[in-house]
Amino acid sequence: MSVSLGVHVGQQNMAMNEMRALWRKLDDSGVDWISTWDHFYEAPPKGGTEPHFEALATLGALAAETHNARIGCLVFYVGYRNPALLAKAATTLDHITGGRFELGIGAGWHIWEASAYGYPFPDIGTRLDMLEEAAQIIRQMLTQDRTDFAGTHYQVDNASCLPKPIQERLPIWIGGVGEKRTLKIVADHADGWNAAYQSPEEFARINEVLNHWCEEEQRDPKTLKRAANIMFNLGLTQADLDRQREILQRDWGELASRTEGGALLCTPEDAVERIMEYVEAGADEINISLRAPWDAEALDAYLTKVMPEVRKATA
Known about the structure:
Elements: E1 4-9, H1 16-28, E2 33-36, H2 55-65, E3 70-73, E4 76-77, H3 83-97, E5 101-106, H4 111-116, H5 124-143, E6 147-150, E7 155-159, E8 172-175, H6 182-189, E9 192-196, H7 200-216, E10 225-232, H8 238-252, H9 256-261, E11 263-264, H10 268-280, E12 285-290, H11 296-314
Parallel strand pairs: 1-2, 1-12, 2-3, 3-5, 4-5, 5-8, 8-9, 9-10, 10-11, 10-12
Antiparallel strand pairs: 6-7
């Protein structure tokens, strides 16, 4: 019952040299996964008032700075980049990393940055149609010699993607918790499913819905990996936890109560039990989500104390 322990790093409010040092530290500390997110503005939204780096270019630096951890993006919004381009970028990153890259895609949510940058942001039904087409194109381009696809939103004409990825099957992750469409697309087209900031109880419930979709689509549920992203709000003392709760409330406003349910808002002594709740809920991978600034001592405690205990418990 081994579990992957990763870190989801939001590339905001940090200088690039600080972020590169963080990636090296995480990689040297033995994390299994390091990811970025795909935004032009900060998340949660603050009107583009905080420094933020673009995802694909950031991934190139992340790929070059690490040697052990798998890397990826959870998740690319398919409305920002042509899926054939994403397939090409994924292949390139797989070669830079020596076969450590995994591609995440999703239907997007950050309408404010999309509007500011001039991207159409259609209704959710249309965005899910785009996601389903993108997943098919990317899979074909990563595995076939030539790809033809004529969809409503995307077209590919006899396209090749050479060289092929190093991995025989470069994993495609799809993120989201929509029960009617998103999870069906996951069951049909993904190697992994990612859910962000859900409580263990809600993760377990949605995971069962996904299992149902696998059965409906005649797919073995065991062939699909499941990942939970949880907010990193670890505190060494009660005063630290009170400050972390204030930060959650300030940053997330009316969404704070739901987000807190999907947060590692506890001391290191309680963190192992909290993470194991996600494992028992069906998560194969647990990624803590870092938003600068965070408590450096708490992160060190997670890397040196919590991770080894979780690995011992799941060995």
